[in-house]
Amino acid sequence: TALHGQAIIGAYSNLDGGIGSDDMQYMGKAVVIHNWRTNFQWVLGFALSEDFDDNEFIPLAGLRAFHRKWHFNVTLPVEARATYAWNNNLNLFFGGWLSGAQYHIESDTAGDLDLQVRDTRVGVGGDYWIMPDVRLTLEAGAYIGNDAFELKLDGVDGTREEDLENAAYIRFGIGVQTN
Hints:
Elements: E1 2-13, E2 24-37, E3 40-49, E4 57-67, E5 70-76, E6 79-85, E7 90-105, E8 113-131, E9 134-145, E10 148-152, E11 158-161, E12 167-178
Antiparallel strand pairs: 1-2, 1-12, 2-3, 3-4, 4-5, 5-6, 6-7, 7-8, 8-9, 8-10, 9-12, 10-11
């Protein structure tokens, strides 16, 4: 079992009108990683992010699997990603990410979960480690706009409306992490 921390600052833009100050983003993450089996880990923690506008703190739970140079990661509610370690300094990845306007959990005994998603991204990119704990990240792809995507844990209700146009995006940043 280990504690992992990460802080990233960068920009995310759909390139409509260039990259401006409103495209700047930050993200922090703290998770506890538990080695479940030889090539599997459980992840539990939280993120400080602008991905869900109404809640900067997002609870995280996930599973990681490793196979040779491959690393597969599913972290709910925000990420599914596959990474290939090209060498000691360069990782290449592809995946899908969610960003939204609201994320809410209520917990009495059988609490409910509400999630409104603004967009879903699919993309490819790379992480280049310039120092042991410092990396540069570049990601590009497409985002698929979803005006509303409601998910409720207590019921099976769900709504999906797509009113936003699909668009290309680019995301880049510099990050520091500790293990």
